[in-house]
């Protein structure tokens, strides 16, 4: 029978994804100890492997302890964090999926509560009371909104340290066995705050013109690409539009994607928003596929592979996005929390794998015998 595009493999450098279903990175605020994933993360991520996804992303993973989104985020800033990630990577591989890690520096939005605690910014006093080396840094001394403290503007030395942190975390991601690194350049975190003229008011080579505002993003991507094995894919998540008037827009994203492609970035994961309080809440449901137009235009105009994300709910919707040439990969977030077996169910909705051959071997043959 005819195979849906959603279940066609995709080769990216040396990695073959078995299908186009990606689990979007989702913060769990559940690290054990200092930034280490534990049993929660093993179960949370592995269930998507059993559920048939081709590629699973670990949540935003901090490159520096002072730059976590939340106080219980996972990180790859220390060698102690490699082994617990490797245990998860190995289990996911044994169960037929690829796994990537999203590396992030939260910048001026470091230190917020989990949504179940209110999702608000913590004060620097609250953060320092944890005994951890928290720092809110940004391109300029401009706060992310009324509830956020003013960040320290990074010096050139501070910028150089941040580039080193991304490289060191990339090296650990390789040792942990990850197949993909995704750089988090979206949602108002550090790199996004350099891109947008709203948050970046610098007058040195990192601010002012678009070329200058893009400089740190390009440097980090170049540094990471040089350290990440050539056969492994590199993804970048961007906010295709930052959500402010006259801020970072889609034309800018097309230019950035072209430049990142030239550096060796393989896939552009097209999200949006998050720059400041008014736009930061990515958990608000908006229209079905509301960010797909960003993916479509960047894919066409920058001639790059893209990953669409945002309120993509079922197989037929995902299949149409691929058939219409609007993306190469489909990332699923909340709908995969609702249904960890999203990929298998999407296959069935598209008339694919009706014999359960893509399911775990422990389960598939029993399901095939079911009346
Ligand atoms: C997210 N999102 C997110 N994005 C990201 O780039 N890094 C992250 O760590 C997180 N964390 C996170 C946690 C939770 C619980 C949710 C629900 C979302 C955004 C997520 O990856 C996705 O882009 C959005 O949720 C939109 O897709 P869905 O949920 O509509 O499929």
UniProtKB/TrEMBL annotation:
Cofactor: FMN
Domain of life (superkingdom): Bacteria
Pfam families in alphabetical order: Oxidored_FMN
Chain ranges of the NADH:flavin oxidoreductase/NADH oxidase N-terminal domain: 6-350
MF term (GO), any: NADPH dehydrogenase activity
Matching SUPFAM superfamilies: FMN-linked oxidoreductases
UniProt keyword annotation of NADP present: yes
Alphabetically ordered keywords of this record: Flavoprotein, FMN, NADP, Oxidoreductase
Stored PANTHER family: NADPH DEHYDROGENASE C23G7.10C-RELATED
Name the UniProt record assigns to this protein: 2,4-dienoyl-CoA reductase-like NADH-dependent reductase (Old Yellow Enzyme family)
